[in-house]
Amino acid sequence: MSVRAVLFAFGLTVLAGLSTGIGSALAFYTKQTNKKFLSAALGFSAGVMIYVSMIEIFVKARASLEHAYGPTKGYWITTLGFFAGIAIIAFIDRFVPSAENPHEMRDVGEMAGIAETSAAAEESALMRMGLFSALAIAIHNFPEGLATFVGALQDPTLGVSIAVAIAIHNIPEGIAVSVPIFFATGSRRKAFRYSFLSGLSEPVGGLVGFFLLRSFLSDATFGIVFALVAGIMIYISLDELLPTAEKYGEHHVAIYGMVGGMAVMALSLLLLS
Fold first, then answer.
1. Is residue 152 in a domain?
2. Range of 174's domain?
3. In a domain, 202, yes or no
């Protein structure tokens, strides 16, 4: 495995993780969130994730594991790994309180309304919400960083697709962190800093995963990791992206975005195959 390949994978992971900063900037420098655009973008990201997970990542996982263990056993391990990935991210979600969960998106207008009805106690609650959102996002971004990093190592084109989908997904998470902290402190700099730092866990997840796994890299290792990644990305799409897209915009806008994401992903795979 070349140094160039590792640096490319790490660079993609950094870009995907730090897109939380884009969400933070959007929250500060637009008076009102463009909800229809955000809804379409989240639907698009979900479409990319669902399509690439089921058509590309799961298939690659199965091929690797069947090569290592044979057709029957390999298929069983792939399927178990897929549902294990869902279980891992669901377990993380289960222990994040809903009030601080980054999937419970809040925009600038909503936070402004909260801030106007309270004083110091409410500011403290907003700060707590923002900090817990940052922690929750950092935890969620860790396996996403591993997904981007390993995907790029195995297939650069696949890595780019995963990175783009996760980057779009991270934009509203940046809003979820920065907006409550901004209304609690009045400081754009402090809010942006926490939002930015929460995204750093993505490249950290990629690096930690790589250093833990590099001594064991084989068809079996890649297959198991890819099966886990497919499950994680499907869960993120169905539990986070599509419900948030529905919340921000109209039902059909989210669905059109999702279909568009699938179509773009399918076309890119066809052109690069």
1. yes
2. 3-25+35-272
3. yes
Structure tokens at 183: 């209304």
Number of structural domains in the chain: 1
116: exposed, middle or buried (Cβ count in 10 Å: 0-12, 13-18, 19+): exposed
Q: What is the pLDDT of residues 34-81, one digit of tens each?
A: 677 777 877 887 888 888 889 888 998 999 999 999 999 999 999 999
Q: Which residues contact 48 (CB under 8 A, 6 or more apart)?
A: 161, 164, 165, 168, 261, 262, 264, 265
Cβ pair 253, 46 in contact under 8 A: no
CA angle (266, 269, 272) in 5-degree steps? 150
- In total, the chain counts a number of residues equal to 273
Q: Does the residue 30 lie in any domain?
A: no
- Distant-in-sequence, close-in-space partners of 171: CB < 8 Å, separation ≥ 6: 19, 20, 22, 23, 26, 38, 41
pTM to 2 decimals? 0.68
Distance CA 66, CA 55 (A): 17
Q: Is there a domain that residue 89 lies in?
A: yes
Radius of gyration for the chain, computed over Cα atoms and rounded to the nearest angstrom: 19
